[in-house]
Write a structure and sequence with these properties.
Aspartate Aminotransferase, domain 2, globular, seven-stranded mixed β-sheet, Aspartate Aminotransferase, domain 1, alpha/beta
């Protein structure tokens, strides 16, 4: 059977044998009672890694983001975010559905929020007829922008603005591990400017399920209650938490390999006159390119027929996400398929 090379997302990774063994050997208890030792170890380890007082294991990145937004706000409040933010486009309307929140989208630059535009978007406290601005949300790395890294200087300026206006900051750090490895900036340095942080374990780190949220003890106490209220309370969840703990201890530094794979593909795509790519935006494990001669849909279909799975990005773009389950040989073969399809 022909091997299928899957670059649709880094969510398609499967647990390694070593990770599966860690899951099999995990010591478990009832996590709703706080008695699952493996989950407790994961939460303590993640909190320390992120430089936060406390952390909580949740089932997904969407759950993590939505719990964090919920505990920072009241119904009717407004969250300021970049216009292509994951919380707006890809979380099933959850800010409105779960927390009664309004989203204020800002046109960004490669996923970064211009401070002046954010300042102008903050509602005046005297305007009782407007929603109340409550949270500035940052996504790092930024998915729709192509896995771009939000500059630390931008985050620091946003934090200063938030403090001046009594606003909270939330980090959608689904791929913050990628940002850290590529930039050399520790995750706790990124995280310290945010009241809450959500980080995925099931993308580039290779765990099958789960995310971590982190913040102060008071906020995570509230998060525990909200998690339970939306069906996120889990019992002997250490079997799953063990995979996340293994991922954090073993799979962060290797993300640089995924970044190298993305650059190799980007260079091949950039050399194809029938394809268009902003090679400067290829900063981590993701890239977007535009086919000039055929439609995105046709290109995806032809690639699939040749054993290569890609996905659609923004309108007119094809997305590639590299990960630990594809080899450098797979990368070379994929580049050959792309050249053939878009010749």
């Amino acid at each position: 059977m022909k091997k299928i090379i899957d670059f649709r997302s880094d969510t398609v990774t499967k647990p390694s044998l070593e990770m599966r063994k860690a899951m099999y050997d995990a010591e478990v208890g009832d996590d709703v009672y706080g008695e699952d030792p493996t989950t407790n170890e994961l939460q303590e380890y993640a909190a320390d890694l992120l430089g936060k007082e406390s952390a909580l294991f949740v089932t997904s990145g969407v759950m993590g983001n939505q719990i964090c937004l919920n505990i920072l706000t009241n119904p009717g409040d407004e969250v300021i975010c970049e216009k292509d933010a994951h919380i707006f486009w890809y979380e099933s309307g959850s800010p409105a559905k779960l927390s009664g929140l309004q989203i204020h989208q800002i046109e960004g630059i490669d996923g970064s929020l211009p401070v002046k535009k954010v300042k102008d978007a903050i509602r005046p406290q005297s305007a009782y007829y407007m929603p109340e601005s409550k949270v500035i949300e940052v996504e790092n790395t930024h998915n729709v922008a192509g896995g771009t890294i939000i500059p630390l200087e931008n985050i620091i300026e946003l934090r200063k603005l938030a403090d001046e206006n009594n606003l909270f900051m939330h980090l959608d750090g689904a791929r913050i591990w990628n940002a850290s490895v590529a930039s050399g900036i520790l995750v706790n340095e990124y995280a310290k400017y945010f009241d809450t942080v959500s980080c995925c374990l099931s993308k580039g780190l290779g765990a099958p399920i789960g995310s971590i949220i982190a913040g102060s003890k008071e906020l995570m106490h509230k998060a525990f209650r909200v998690r339970k209220s939306i069906g996120g309370g889990m019992r002997q969840v250490g079997i799953i938490a063990a995979a996340g703990l293994f991922a954090l201890k073993n799979n962060i530094s290797r993300l640089s390999e995924d970044h190298e794979k993305a650059k190799i593909l980007a260079e091949r795509i950039n050399a194809n006159p029938n394809l268009e790519i902003n090679i400067n935006s290829v900063q981590t494990n993701m890239l977007m390119f535009h086919p000039k001669t055929i439609s995105v849909e046709k290109g995806l279909t032809l690639c699939k027929e040749n054993g290569l799975l890609l996905s659609g990005g923004k309108v007119g773009l094809i997305r590639i996400v590299t990960h630990l389950d594809v080899t450098f040989d797979d990368v070379k073969k994929s580049a050959d398929i792309i050249d053939e399809v878009f010749s």
